[in-house]
Amino acid sequence: MMVEPTMRKILLLSLLASLCSAQPAPDPAFSSERLARIGTFLQQSVDQNKIAGAVALVLHNGKPVYERAVGWSDKEAGRRMTTTTLFRIASQTKAITSAAIMALVEEGKIGLKEPVGHFIPSFTKTTVAVKTESGINLVPAKRAITIQDLLTHTAGISYGREPHVSALYEAKGLGPAAGNGWYTADKDEPVCQTMERLGTLPFVAQPGEAFVYGYNTDILGCVVEKASGMSLAEFIRTRITAPLGLKDTRFFVPAAERDRLAAVYSTGKDGTFVRAPEGSKGQGHYVDGPRVSFAGGAGLTSTARDYARFLEMIRRGGVFDGVRILAPRSAELMTTNQSGDLHSKSFGAGLGFGLGFQTIDLYGANGMAGIGAFGWSGAYGTTYQVDRKSGTVIVLMIQLMPNGTDVQPKFNTLVYQSLLQ
Asked: How far apart are CA 368 and CA 338, in angstroms?
């Protein structure tokens, strides 16, 4: 029987996907029977059209105990998901940029309590927009914003989407004018130029008084450039990704590898996925865009394997495979609560925020994650958790924005229920 070229390609990709999904050797710390529930759940999520596809990876003491690709990386193109598929990791970029900042802190080029205005002049004196009955009043910030304020998201800086400031941000090409607020991959200006402009806008809370999620880590990306004398992309490549062997963690995908990048989908009105549109609120400009703006808060693409390797380095105190990226105390500082109760006021009791990671300070605050665990997620649906007590790194990669499913928390629970210690 003759096989059409397109069908032959699909069959070969399906074979590759199955080979890539071959499971690692059993680990006595995990129940193989219980681990199998993960794959059943993810496949059901695909079969029910909740997600197009996913890659799941679990490390125990640095070694894979579970790895599987299910579904489609691009259903319309007939491309199956594989464990080497590339994903837009959005806010998971923040952890890597935060590690870059800490590397420069260790060299004495940046101080944690140092004012951001030392690096970006427009941040020397900032303002805060206070809502009034007739509009807003702009008042001076009570103190200078520091590097640590940005790392802990306590600088009072949002993504500029609040109704009382959104028009001001939009006029400067930020907030509503930047996709979902955080998106800059389509900008044809360097990130520091964008951040200089951001510093002229009013923020929504006083420094140190609230946890406000926003452009904080994008500002830190500019600080990396100012302090190091090189682009954020080059600094991350030379100081983090290349030393760790992370060949697939980059701000933009080479044109020759476009078929490795998973398509973005959205949760539709009926709860099933639909293909997201082109542009800043959908597929993005990660292949064919200007390739100029290196967004430290949301710009990287990566694979499950690459990102898990980075997390394992943090879990081990800044070193992996004999390569030291950070000092042990820097890694500990990043992964313990440095924001008091400011984060928990917004996200719930027992949750803190370190220098780039959400922390678990109370068992039960985030499912079955143990005290001392840390993690975060990305707008496109990627998520991760590092559990110190069990020595486990958990990574789930999907591309679903907005995500109206409960796949992420259920996936984490299924990993933890398979642990026998």
From this structure: 22
